[in-house]
Design brief:
Layout (H helix, E strand, L loop, with lengths): L1 H47 L3 H4 L2 E4 L5 E4 L1 H9 L4 H9 L2 H7 L4 H7 L3 H6 L19 E11 L2 E12 L4 E15 L2 E10 L2
Antiparallel strand pairs: 1-2, 3-4, 4-5, 5-6
Length: 199
């Protein structure tokens, strides 16, 4: 009888752990979904409304009269929409070649000599020709979350698809696949990587 009670107690405790874990996964899944949809809701709106300073750095002059990039508004938005410190650092580093090139250009020359896309490509500063967080050169109308996987208590993967709205057919067409990884940092889910993947 004592063994049966002990066995029953173990089953109840195990079921309680599974139930709590499942409940926590559901709460985490909701928070992860909100983090991703809040970011992409802002990003797609900023692109659509041509708020370039919000979704990419802007060219500016430094104190030496040379060109540089101003990340202040862009990074304020990324922080607001829960980008991790790791992803913010990686994003800033991705502009290093452009920044090195700009440091050699006088602001007066920049406005007269850099007027074509090929000029920007030559100095690796053609980021305005590409929508970084959805991939490609065309803006998208929406995103659709395909799956959310809570891998651990502090790591999640979200798969999303880009969507283009066909006004004639009145339907969204899905294309492209993006994988967003999130980490939980001090109780908050943060976007840690965004990758275009082939499927």
């Amino acid at each position: 009888m004592m063994r049966f009670k002990l066995f029953l107690l173990i089953i109840i405790l195990t079921w309680g752990v599974i139930f709590n874990s499942s409940g926590q996964q559901s709460a985490d899944s909701t928070l992860v979904r909100k983090t991703v949809t809040d970011f992409y809701g802002w990003y797609l709106s900023a692109v659509k409304n041509h708020k370039n300073a919000e979704f990419e750095p802007v060219f500016t002059k430094n104190s030496n009269g040379k060109m540089t990039l101003d990340f202040s508004e862009y990074f304020a938005q990324l922080k607001k929409y829960k980008f991790s410190d790791n992803l913010m650092h990686a994003e800033k580093s991705s502009y290093n070649i452009c920044l090195d090139s700009l440091a050699k250009i006088n602001d007066s020359d920049f406005n007269t000599r850099y007027t074509d896309l090929s000029d920007y490509e030559r100095i690796n500063c053609d980021f305005s020709n590409y929508y970084r967080w959805v991939g490609g050169q065309e803006p998208v109308d929406a995103i659709k979350i395909s799956s959310i996987k809570i891998k651990t208590s502090s790591f999640a993967l979200v798969e999303i698809r880009n969507a283009f709205y066909n006004a004639e057919e009145k339907v969204y067409h899905l294309y492209g696949t993006i994988e967003v990884s999130l980490i939980k940092h001090q109780g908050v889910w943060e976007i840690d990587t965004i990758k275009n993947i082939l499927k």
